Q: What sequence folds into this?
């Protein structure tokens, strides 16, 4: 799988996860280097644009992301 196009500038990992390297590594492997279609942040990014991705949205919060997209 290809690396997610958002990873280099994803504020979630590049800002919020700096102090949690083990957790960040695990999540990056699953969501950023695996299937980014399962990342809540990526779902919102694709549907609504980067400016609509909440800073507190975790990659695992897919239900929240789908709710946001549905409510556009």
A:
């Amino acid at each position: 799988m290809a690396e997610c196009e958002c990873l280099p500038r994803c504020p979630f990992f590049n800002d919020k996860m700096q102090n949690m390297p083990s957790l960040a590594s695990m999540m990056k492997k699953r969501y950023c280097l695996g299937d980014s279609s399962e990342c809540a942040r990526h779902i919102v990014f694709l549907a609504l644009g980067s400016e609509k991705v909440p800073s507190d949205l975790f990659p695992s919060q897919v239900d929240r992301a789908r709710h946001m997209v549905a409510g556009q």
Remarks:
- The helical segments are 11-16, 21-32, 40-48, 62-71.
- The radius of gyration is 11 Å.
- Residues 8-71 form one domain.
